[in-house]
Amino acid sequence: MNLANKLTMLRILLVPVFLIFVALNTPLGTVTAIVVFILASLTDKLDGHIARSRNQITKFGKFMDPLADKLLVTSALVSLVEYQIVPTWMAMIIIAREFAVTGLRAVAASEGIVIAASWWGKLKTATQMVAIVFALIKLVYSPAYITYITYIILGAAVIITVISGVDYFVKNKKALSTEN
């Protein structure tokens, strides 16, 4: 278990901490949830950098890093739908893509293929995380311009999410081949 993988595991462990603070539904709880979410999001960038710079890229990391991102983003989106900050349809598009790509990765893994995060996937994750931070800020501070910025970034996140999902399936259609 190298440092990059430990950071990935830390991100997973921060998900319930984030959920506890966002569930408090108080200004202090929400601000704390924002800080926890940002810290967890930063571990995503950091773990990848460490793994590449130290030449410590592992199959565990290739599998767990995207899963950790999905857990963090999905938990935040579900919470934000509950607070009526993120429209359900936007959250469902994002979550459906996450399930679809996870399924693709599982099928590929059964064929001995590891699908690493693509450039589109990384852009998708970054855009989603920025959108979620703005949506969380909207819980405690909601002037009109924050609302507009939030929905513009959420819209961009949905579009990039769809593009990245299509990209994964097009580039990895071999993993879904019915031929043996």
TrEMBL record:
Belongs to the CDP-alcohol phosphatidyltransferase class-I family. GO terms for molecular function: CDP-diacylglycerol-glycerol-3-phosphate 3-phosphatidyltransferase activity. The chain crosses the membrane at residues 12-40, 71-95, 148-170. InterPro entries: CDP-alcohol_PTase-I, CDP-OH_P_trans, CDP-OH_PTrfase_TM_dom, CDP_ALCOHOL_P_TRANSF_CS, Phosphatidylglycerol_P_synth. It is found in: Membrane. Its EC number is 2.7.8.5. Pfam families: CDP-OH_P_transf (PF01066). Keywords: Lipid biosynthesis, Lipid metabolism, Membrane, Phospholipid biosynthesis, Phospholipid metabolism, Transferase, Transmembrane, Transmembrane helix. Pathway: Phospholipid metabolism; phosphatidylglycerol biosynthesis; phosphatidylglycerol from CDP-diacylglycerol: step 1/2. NCBIfam families: pgsA. The gene is pgsA. It catalyses: a CDP-1,2-diacyl-sn-glycerol + sn-glycerol 3-phosphate = a 1,2-diacyl-sn-glycero-3-phospho-(1'-sn-glycero-3'-phosphate) + CMP + H(+). Its main location: membrane. It is a multi-pass membrane protein. It comes from the Bacteria. This protein catalyzes the committed step to the synthesis of the acidic phospholipids. It comes from Clostridium ganghwense. This is CDP-diacylglycerol--glycerol-3-phosphate 3-phosphatidyltransferase.
